[in-house]
Amino acid sequence: MQLFPNVYEIKSPFGDRYLQQYLFVGESVVLVDAGVIATPQEAIFPYMEKIGVSPNRLTMVIAMHADSDHHGGLPAIKDASSSTLLACHEGDRKMIEDPEVLYRERYNFLARAHGLGFGREGMVYSPRSCKIDLKLRVWHVPGHSEGHLAIYDEKNRAAFTSDAVQAGGYPTASGDMAFGPTYYTVNAYLATIAFLEKQSIEHVFSGHWPAAHNADVKKFLSSSRDFVERVDENILQYLRQHARGATLKTLLHEISPKLGKWSQDADIFLQFAMYGHLERLTQNGILRADKSAPVNYRLI
């Protein structure tokens, strides 16, 4: 779909959700995000050919952050166009280049101390390593990952934010809620929201959410902050009522239903944000983390 002259959205199904990439066509052709490993062949290349742009004209692909559904297609793009430059922020480079680092440091880092994490089934979306050619910094918007990027189109006052801000969770294609937000570092995520609120943005185009325009941009950013505040409130309320404290897994399953209307099976996706909240509350001297496995948190 054409968003503006020479700016296009490429949308494809991803389970019960959507994946969205963005193509900028000029003397250079720049693609923002690469989808999963099959996305280039199934969606990106066919769309480029439809609008008369050969895939081998791709100058650069920018992976906005390290997640299999955003950078998994990079090797396929490099196979089709060896001259295309692959770019990301330095903070995410190792995870994007090496699937094992991605699994160990992003998807399964909570396994030992908290008995959480994910199996390797998600790795099907990025089973191959790749080499990043450039390290770029456009807008650095961390929180969901250390090196998350956003692209700003000044002419159209449009921000392409990928997963930098996530409202109250990830929507399904039908508009229901698939699962909750997956930011990792709370302070960085809040700083990203505040940064975006200060910019002259009239349009937000993201990785999974419907586009937001004008007044809806402010609502999208506000709802992202509101979710963070509700998580803190619910954690503290639960721990006030349970003096012996609780583990991350217990808090996850007790609090998740109060935060959004996703299925119980989807509670697990909230582990990363919930862990980030518990770490921040501990660092701020509000909670104490016992030296146990799994770790138990209680109010000081």
CATH architecture of the largest domain: 4-Layer Sandwich
Helix-strand pattern: EEEEHEHHEHHHEEEEEEHEEHEHHEE
Task: Give the helix/strand class.
Answer: alpha+beta
Number of helices: 10
| Span between termini | 53 Å
Q: What does the largest sheet look like?
A: 7 strands, mixed
Global mean pLDDT? 94
- Provide the CATH topology of the largest domain: Metallo-beta-lactamase, Chain A
Overall morphology: globular
The stretches of 5 or more residues where confidence is low (pLDDT under 50) are none
Bin the helical content.
25-40%
The largest beta-sheet arranges its strands as 1-2-3-4-5-6-7
Description of the structure:
This protein has 2 domains: 2-225, Ribonuclease Z/Hydroxyacylglutathione hydrolase-like (Metallo-beta-lactamase, Chain A); 232-299, Orthogonal Bundle (Arc Repressor Mutant, subunit A). The radius of gyration is 19 Å and the shape is globular. The chain is α+β, with helices and mostly antiparallel strands. The model has no long low-confidence stretch (mean pLDDT 94). The chain has helices at residues 39-50, 68-71, 74-80, 93-97, 99-107, 111-114, 186-197, 215-241, 248-259, 271-283, and strands spanning 2-4, 7-14, 17-25, 29-32, 58-62, 85-88, 134-135, 139-140, 149-153, 158-162, 170-171, 177-179, 203-206, 212-213, 246-247, 287-289, 296-299. The protein is 35% helix and 22% strand. The strands form 4 sheets. A 7-stranded mixed β-sheet has the order 1-2-3-4-5-6-7, covered by helices on one side. A 5-stranded mixed β-sheet has the order 8-9-10-13-14. The termini are far apart. The chain contains 10 helices and 17 strands.
